[in-house]
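re: ur msg from earlier - yeah i can do the adenosine-5'-diphosphate-glucose complex, just paste it... oh wait u already did. ok heres what im feeding in:
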Amino acid sequence: MIDQARRLVVVSNRLPLVLSPGADGGLVSKPGSGGLVTALLPVLRDRGGVWVGWPGIADHTAEVEAALDRSAKKAGYRLAPVALSAEDQAGFYHGFSNEVLWPLFHDLQSLCNFDPSYWRSYCEVNHHYAQVVLAEARPDDFIWAHDYQLLLLAAELRRAGFTAPLAFFLHIPFPPLDIYLKLPWRFTLLRALLEYDLIGFQTLRDHRNFIQCVRALMPDAHITHRTRRVDLPDRRGVSIGVFPIGIDAAAFQRQARSAGVTAAANALRAELPQREVILGVDRLDYTKGIPLRLEAFRLALRQYPELQEHVTLIQVVVPSRDDIPQYRNLKTRIEQLVGEINGEFTRPGGWVPIHYVYRSVDRLDLIAYYRAAQIALVSPLKDGMNLVAKEFCACSVHGDGVLILSEFAGAAAQMQNGALLVNPYDIEGMANAIHQACTMPHAERQARMKRLRQGVSRQDVFRWVNTFLEAAIARDLDAFPLPPDYVPSAEAEQAYWDTAFAE
Ligand code: ADQ
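and the outut:
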């Protein structure tokens, strides 16, 4: 069982809220968005503890402290801000985190900008986070760092003489050796990461890639316990685990059944009568595969004209990182494709094939979209997990939704028995999957969705946190069952193509 007495110190790039100057000159606090916040908020609220991170504002003033204290009182745990200058943000966050690690770890090395000044800033800012942790932490706290912005945090803490156990969870994928090797700072980074005592990955794929890198780049590392432990000559062993993240499934289900969401979903459906509603929901990000998805939808409409006027794609895109040129270009590309497709197929006074929503929608509106849709099209080029896939299933309360899911989303390993898996680079395959989903018999939809909903409920976020904390305390991962793996099978692919072309 988890030692409930241990206080939890969560360290992540951002605090789970954003402060910004309000119209009256004071500070406004807004809840943050994104997978990490969605996953951890309910847990810290229940256990109590400290969350260390950047508060979303450059100046660190008494006013910021006061605003955080007010929010912390409401939230039930302490918020410890890390002050980052605009220059830090540019080099550490926009630079190294989002122009080097993000594309590299999603296998998109050609999008990387390996600017050495970004690396220096990343080292300095990780040092800075370590200083705040040192000021906050008590010796018996449980310190849990999150994600690719903090790969060097443990090494910085160790350098300062900190000896308590440190755990880390990587929310994004870990790349295979050939891609990781492109990183100019590959040895330093890998060695620094091994200063954590527990490293958690989303999937066996990421675990395999990591072990492959350790084997190749660190000949002095001794890998044991069925690759779940790495020993180095100069330090104690590091546990390497796989913990696929979940969602607060019960909360999504409850909200999806609420009167407000039911009314909003019915209103959406009333606007699109007799139509199959396909939903895409993504942060604006080139890893999410939005342009290829739109091309697949266009191909489905061309190849299966019977879908025209019977299918509507609602694509919600949440603005993100729009100060990075690649993201602005992506936005333009999406708008262009939406325009082209609507231009080609829209019927005068009637059907518009794509409804494009470019804004952050609030949670209940998002759930209403999930509930109103019969099909979710989740096709990232690569994704650590992808919570949208799980949220859609939790909200499909009538049990007849169809999930089309990229085989390169971490979620594919757990959801392969219910979802229609697609290769997001294969436009024809995706177009066929759209057709298959639209024409799937009701009984098959229900059987698939039942399996998906059971999995999402069972493997929820509370179980994820509990398992991670138990693993951190046990330090021996042999007792922890490994989650399912996903590797495409030639037989399944052949069977798929045989069915796709059978008349
Ligand atoms: P993200 O890249 O942010 O997370 P994802 O897992 O899809 O990706 O999570 C997106 C989250 O944003 C979902 O919880 C969703 O509800 C929320 N969201 C979507 N649309 C929204 C909107 N309009 N307004 C507000 N919130 C919205 C990273 C990794 C993923 C990994 C998660 C969790 O990149 O691979 O699954 O962390 O570990």
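cool cool. Residues 8-242 form a domain with the Rossmann fold fold (CATH 3.40.50.2000). ping me if u need the other ligands too
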